[in-house]
Amino acid sequence: MYQWYPGHMAKTKRLIEENLKIVDIVYELIDARIPKSSRNPLIDELVKNKKRLILLNKADLSDSAVNKMWNEYFKKLGIASLNINSLNSSSIKEIYELTLKECSNIIDRKRQKGIKAKLRAMIVGIPNVGKSTLINSLSKTKSAKTGNKPGVTKAKQWIRTPYFDLLDTPGILWPKFEDEHVGIMLALTAAIKDELLNHEELAFSLLKILKQEYPELLMQRYKIQNIDIDLYDLLREIGKMRGCLSSGGHIDTERTSKIIVEDFRTGKLGKISLERPD
């Protein structure tokens, strides 16, 4: 079981609850590579019937065919979704256009009441899923701090954008979860700190998926002809090909594991999705 509940995350939960009534739509930002594990189950309960748009960020790093599967999955749940790259200007335009479509009734009601104010949106998501980067792209400024470590945003902040007023919230993780798979997926995408899990364990989990779903990418990246071997031997083979040798000529499996995980995170392994809809 993985368990944490820092004070700022409890505060974030209250902040979301308190501000929902003053926003028109909620953007739930998740990682397109792990849509299941990067969705905080608390969000469904918190947001309830509020208009929502799920943004699958880092879609440029994930498998486009699997992205479409997730779009269909969320559509069946009655939730609109969009595959985005928060650094891409075309994604920003698509978000704006879909927001107008989803909020058309709200806009009409405001016009009938003579309200000219912009739409108000709230953005929620787990740490390190790309919220601050997206906000900066939307606002065309450096309004939100960014970083590649969890928990950069510490407090709520209203961001003015050319499209709508956006309420940023700190990343919120759930109090605890017993599913080891979720912890591994979050660690692989750097949503939680690497130190919480063993690097070799992360690499083994990643290699298991790659062998099954993306064998060609695995062989191509590490110039390996045969991957039909057990995971430890495969890890050692990759270490040998990458020159990860320690004193005495032994293969440094820890260093090799870090390389494999980083290759996945940066897209050097290719476009990979670690989760598919049930």
Could you explain the architecture of this structure?
The chain has two domains: 2-176, 3-Layer(aba) Sandwich (Rossmann fold), CATH 3.40.50.300; 199-278, Conserved Hypothetical Protein Ylqf, Chain: A, domain 2 (Orthogonal Bundle). The chain contains eleven helices and eight strands. It has helices at 7-19, 41-47, 64-76, 89-102, 104-112, 131-139, 180-188, 199-213, 215-222, 231-241, 253-265, and strands at 2-3, 25-31, 52-57, 80-83, 120-124, 157-160, 165-168, 176-177. A six-stranded mixed sheet has the order 4-3-2-5-7-6, with helices on both faces. Helix 8 crosses helix 11. It starts with a strand and ends in a 13-residue tail after the last helix.
Features:
44% helix, alpha/beta, 278 residues, 2 domains, six-stranded mixed beta sheet, Rossmann fold, 8 strands, 11 helices, two-stranded antiparallel ribbon, Conserved Hypothetical Protein Ylqf, Chain: A, domain 2
